[in-house]
Amino acid sequence: MNTAMSIKKYNIWTIGCQMNEADSRHLGSQLESLGYAMTEEVTEADLVVLNTCVVRQSAEDRAIGRLGYVSSLKKKRPDLKVGLMGCMVGMREAPRLKKEFPFVDVFMPPSDPAPLLSYLQGEDNEDAEAKVEEIRRKNEQNAIQDEEYILPALRRNDTIQANVPIVLGCSHACTFCVIPYRRGPERSRRPGEIIQEIRKLAEQGVREIMLLGQIVDRYGTDFEGDYGLAELLTDVSEVEGILRIRYLTGHPNYMTDRIIEVTRDLPKVMPHFELPVQAGNNKVLEDMRRGYTREEFRMLIERVRRICPDSTINTDIIVGFPGETAEEFQDTYDLLAELELDKVHLAKYSERPKTIAARKMPDDVSEEEKERRRLLIDGLVDEILTRKNQRWMDQDVEVLVESRHKGKWRGRTPHNRLVFFESDQDLAGALVDVKIHYTSPYSMQGDLVKVNVPALPKAPNLSTIPMFHRSLKENLSQS
Ligand code: SAH
Q1: What angle do CA 64, 69, 73 make, to 5 degrees?
Q2: CA triple 190-193-198, angle to 5 deg
Q3: Is residue 51 over pLDDT 90?
Q4: Residue 182 alpha carbon to ligand 1 centre in Å
Q5: Final residue of a structural domain among 363, 386, 409
Q6: Using a 6 Å cutoff on CB, does residue 252 contact ligand 1?
Q7: How far away, in angstroms, is 465 Cα from ligand 1 center?
Q8: Is the beta carbon of 370 within 6 A of some atom in ligand 1?
């Protein structure tokens, strides 16, 4: 009882993109190095952090709802510490939020846990700013402690896939998008730091890495010399224990032949592309300031399919952008019908504060019309994927098994298709062949054929990382 009480517990609530998931993981590892332990029960926590998203109003509303709940917890337990992180805080919203949510103790910009770390180390006096700057500088100089960038103890050996940011921020300023205002200017993390993080994740059982950036194919454009995403993919491929690598999100203008070729040629890099088009009409694309035309996007898809024929391509679409007429929307529909991409992340336009669109373009497409357009694209994609996914019928596909879901194992194919199958064996982290016997637009089902790489070892004692590292190696060498 006494020992349980002496260990402080933290709970992190995360919504939004993969970048937020990675930021929460980084924060968790730094909290654990301060002696905190993770809990999934918010009511048990001494420290609660909300990592927020504001890309659309609906995400912001959820964060505000959660803040209301945390406020009620704090009323009952005034010693509860509350941190607010992510795009709601951005680079400069903290003073405004402090007035609106006075029960929040600390505000953290995206990817920047320094204010909370400083606060927890008791530096909440006039030196606080200096302390925050010192922690930031240390992080930047890569003078990170050994415990950093690792998984929370509760998650070790149980996390198959991890997101690793490689490009922070964004400088593109698409007119609809709030991200550049909240995540700051674009900057690439140095390769050494990225590889170090991935090595540590591999030591703790991670087998698939997702490299992240708002415009991931711009990685390294701020370095001297020509080290870019293709070179980084080559270096990440060398990391022992990592079986699969993906990257997200590409911008159509920066997807070079070299990146496509490396994706085709490196066995660990999965043949899957995320290339958001957002709209298929040239006037809308120009109003969005995307920097390409419908014709150029079509040529890009042809180029990807020519260089890397056995690949899948996902995209993002926004319907109901300001001024989008029914005819202009039809161009988007027609382009998607023609290109037959493999998945569409679909969103209704949501006006975001301070963006160019919010300042200059009235949100004039009605909610009913946005919903009508959303349903039309949804139906089209459903029909395309019903047909396209049938190509996997009766095929053996290789699946990296992630977790159990409603009594079945769940994992993904190299082409990022979701697969479910039954087996009594423990297969978390295994690479297996599955024969597909059922396909649908968004997932497939099959039967286990064989295990190619065995499951992760169960780690009886997670407190000693080097020991775990050895057991993973042994397990891999037995395969
Ligand atoms: N960097 C990516 C976009 C990341 S944001 C790119 O270059 O396209 C993730 C997705 O959220 C976007 O692709 C877009 O479809 C959606 N999104 C961003 N701002 C939005 C807004 N104001 N309204 C609706 N959807 C939005």
Answers
A1: 140
A2: 125
A3: yes
A4: 13
A5: 386
A6: no
A7: 39
A8: no
Query: Is residue 126 located within the same domain as residue 177?
Result: no
CATH number at residue 376: 3.80.30.20
CA distances from 245 to 2, 22, 156, 234, 266 (A): 44, 15, 19, 10, 10
Mean pLDDT of all residues in the chain?
Answer: 91
With CA atoms as reference, report the closest residue to 223 among 193, 180, 200, 251.
193
Please indicate, yes or no, whether residues 168 and 297 belong to a single structural domain of this protein: yes
Q: Residue range 109-117: average pLDDT?
A: 94
Q: Does residue 280 have its Cβ closer than 6 Å to ligand 1? A: no
* 28 plus 128 within the same structural domain: yes
The rounded Å distance from CA 91 to ligand 1 centre is 19
Atom of ligand 1 nearest to the CA of 352: 22
Give the pLDDT confidence of 341-376 residue by residue, as tens digits.
999 999 999 999 999 999 999 999 999 999 999 999
For the entire predicted model, the pTM comes to 0.92
Share of the chain above pLDDT 70, in %: 91
> Is 210 a member of any domain?
yes
The count of residues in the chain is: 479
The DSSP code for 458 is: P
Query: 290 CB less than 6 Å from ligand 1?
Result: no
Residues 54 and 37 in one domain: yes
